[in-house]
Amino acid sequence: MAEVNPQTGLPPNWEVRMSQSKGLPYYFNTADKNSRWEPPPGTDTEKLKTYMATYHSVARPPAPQAPAYNANDRAGKIRCAHLLVKHEESRRPASWREAKITRTKAQALEIIKAYQERIKKGEISLGQLALTESDCSSARKYGDLGFFGRGEMQPEFEEAAFALKVGEISDVVETASGYHLIERLE
């Protein structure tokens, strides 16, 4: 097997590029011109996590202020961050961290509960943990999903998010995507 890139952890001919339409990183093969959202097989995920956290994460966006956003555009919307742990039964068992997620639901639940404990103890914030551990592409934005209204998220996620007060973090929430911890930002 060929050596992975020592900086990115990606196999030969693969590089990280930015999507102009989504503003998110993706993986591009310069030899066959194929692209994908998930890391290609053979990726050293630990090296990739370090590379992505260093070069493709952004500072947590500040709360939007007028005139950047029209207050009417945000009516009825909230802003949340989340940390997602997927498992083999997730509706899409792949992420920017792993091309194929094989952990069981029980293992995923154990992982997210351990994250929850670290956050509760004040060892780390949800956003800092999401940056390297979340299976959602929002990880590069410290888990920040931006503003959303009712009907825009999975029902279980939405119910938990809208029940939170600003600054609160949910208990573990299960959706078809996996297990989430949700923090209400606004």
TrEMBL record:
Keywords: Isomerase, Rotamase
Entries under Gene3D superfamilies matching the protein: 2.20.70.10, 3.10.50.40
GO biological process: positive regulation of transcription initiation by RNA polymerase II
PANTHER family xref list: PEPTIDYL-PROLYL CIS-TRANS ISOMERASE (PTHR10657), PEPTIDYL-PROLYL CIS-TRANS ISOMERASE-RELATED (PTHR10657:SF4)
Tagged with keyword Isomerase: yes
MF annotations from Gene Ontology: peptidyl-prolyl cis-trans isomerase activity
Reactions this protein catalyses: [protein]-peptidylproline (omega=180) = [protein]-peptidylproline (omega=0)
Protein name listed in UniProt: Peptidyl-prolyl cis-trans isomerase
EC number: 5.2.1.8
Highest taxon, organism lineage: Eukaryota
InterPro entries: PPIase_dom_sf (IPR046357), PPIase_Pin1 (IPR051370), PPIase_PpiC (IPR000297), WW_dom (IPR001202), WW_dom_sf (IPR036020)
CC per GO annotation: cytosol; nucleus
PpiC domain sequence ranges: 75-186
Top EC class, one word: isomerase
Pfam families reported for this sequence: Rotamase (PF00639), WW (PF00397)
Domain WW intervals: 8-42
